[in-house]
Amino acid sequence: MGKLDGKVAIVNGATSGMGRASAKLFAKEGAKVIVVGRGHNDEARARGNKVVEDIKAAGGEAAFVACDSTKEDQVIHLINKTIELYGKLDVLYNVVGEGKSRPLDQDTVEAWQYTFETTLLTCFLTVKYGMPYLLESKGCIINTSSVAGLMPVLPNMYSYGACNAGVAQYTKVLAKDYAAKGVRVNAIAPGVIDTNAWSHAPKGWLEKIIMDTPIQRIGQPEEIATAAVFLASDDASYITGQVIAVDGAQCLH
User: Fold this and answer.
1) What b-and-e string marks burial along 23-57, b requiring 16 or more CB atoms within 10 Å of the CB?
2) Tens of pLDDT along 207-243?
3) Which of the ends of the chain has fewer CB neighbours closer than 10 A, N or C?
4) Catalytic residue numbers?
5) What is the Cα–Cα distance from 220 to 232, expressed in whole angstroms?
């Protein structure tokens, strides 16, 4: 018997990295999974469909829904499609957020707007339109922040740090407001995880972070997925309003 048997979960940002690992583990633990990705081109849609194929091949149940979750109309379609396919929503997991580090004198309004939209606005829109169904199911929300939102990790992470701090605070406010109504809200703050996001990092950054991380390695997407499954499960029924760092003690350095 899986930890998520009978649950319907949206995994927003499920076509790569932490989201992909989480979607697969959610399905392995018994959830019906809505695999969400932007689907803005053939390659992106193929990645989403591949995650669904992998889940089904392993005996799970999933469907791919293309959605740019910075767009209100597309988020409304995502929620409606989820209810059309599976009749309810138990878990909303946002594994989204992008941003670039740049010196202050080179930073731009456009860069801040992009980081805000992909990191914080996506959480607002999915929560706003998913909440009526989560209230019905007494479900839960898991947002993705970052250790960069909890402490200064690397130089010049202005917009990324600020927006992820916003995700953390948004999570706490939601948790307080909806606890008595039966909806739990938590966030995961990953440290440096082995994903494509680091493929374009400036030379020496990754090595420096590993040196500054007490556990002396980077994390794996599956380690984030394990934390997400726990928070989505009934094992975490008394946990809400928490921002859990999965970071190899980087925050303690």
Assistant:
1) bbbbbbbbbbbbbbbbbeeeeebebbbebbebbee
2) 888 888 899 999 999 999 999 999 999 999 999 999 9
3) N
4) 160
5) 19
